[in-house]
Amino acid sequence: MTMSPQNKNVVIFCSASDRIDPKYNEAATAAVHGLCSKGYGIVSGGTVKGTMRIVSEAVATCGGHHTGILPRFMEPLTHPALDEVVYTDTMSQRKELMREGTCACLALPGGIGTLDELIETLTLRKLGRYGGKVVALDLDGFYAPLRGLLDHYVKTGMLEEGDRAQIEFPQTVGELLELF
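Structure (tokenized):
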């Protein structure tokens, strides 16, 4: 996989749905433009579906480098604007390769796949197997239920406070970009 200078790449996990509130895609565009302007390369799911499509279009308009990682069964959904495409045999391999060489994981508002990717990455961070930042854009409280669940885990002793602190929940794109 080609990397931006000094492994300055961010993996973006996001929605594959075309039926979401436009504000989430507007935030995705703004976040991608901000990250590209700071010299970050983008790694994503790379399909033509939902917010993944929006991410690809945003990277293309700002001239950044974009790597899409897809399982082979999704090959027909590959976005044509990707700079680089990597195909995997399984979804698990996809997630692993998406994180590889990145300095941060950014979860935009998304569905169950995004939640899976985010929680796995947070778990790997907790176990010392992922060294990048873990960030979830909590636009209009989208991730408030997850924040509450993680706080509940701390309260019940199921999660250490230090491990809970390994995920950040900026509420605006501006706050998100300040983390980079």
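The longest strand covers residues 66-71. The mean pLDDT is 95.
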